[in-house]
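User: Can you help me understand a structure? I only have the sequence.
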Amino acid sequence: MTGRTPAIVTVLLATIVAGTVAAGCGTPPAGASDGPTELTVYAAASLKETLGGISKAYATAAPGIRLTVSTASSSALRAQIEQGAPADVFLSADTTQPAALVDAGLAAGEALVFAGNRLAIIVPVADPAGIDTPADLASPGVAIVAAGEAVPITRYTTELIDGLAGLEGYPAGFAKAVTANVVSREDDVKVVVAKIELGEGDAAIVYQTDALASDRVSTVDIPAEANVAASYAGIVVNASTHQGEARAFLDWLVTDPAQAIFASHGFAPPAPAT
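Assistant: Let's start by predicting it. Here is the structure, written out as tokens:
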């Protein structure tokens, strides 16, 4: 018997070592996590600030989930989803856009109403046009900044103007005069607010939460009987590869911790759509 290792034993040892190295450096075993699951959330522009707090809170509530938020007008986001954009969750400033995706078979399950809002008339802090009441929106020469026709705030605005026109003391032709004073239509409500902040318009109608978020605008009181309730609804996108996680996040939005964050930004609790 010599001290030399037989050739076959050498081959076996080399195979074992190679296998050990491969196990340490290769593909993780089935079920192992490569990191948090990323959910892409498409959200109405008016939710931008609020979703910062929502994302932080959800990171604690669901440590294995990371949210990536993209904001724009609800109508634009709906169109992107219809064209195959890779979103997991869609949060709209109305119920109409989510309902259209449900009807088209592009949503997994039904829409969920998760928050409410009201409208506000905003003017630059200096208020150069001297707008004291909603009736002043119809005054000659007032420059009103509005959103595009398909943006949810526009439908709510039309409802508000029609409601104001029916109140005592508002002039005949009020709605028509307000429409004639619109000088620009912007992509989403955040752009509308920015134009008023910069003094590029005399007034605009936005969400109450947008008015609260800016210290560069003032608000004009709206009679309670004419103001409009906005319902925000969300869906899980049918093309999502994380539908379970997406549904869990959407459902979490109506829990007490999430609703407290919405309330801190001026949103109302969810209510049935009107």
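Now, to help you interpret it: Residues 1-32 have pLDDT under 50 and may be disordered. The chain has two domains: 37-116+231-264, 119-220. Let me know which part you'd like to focus on.
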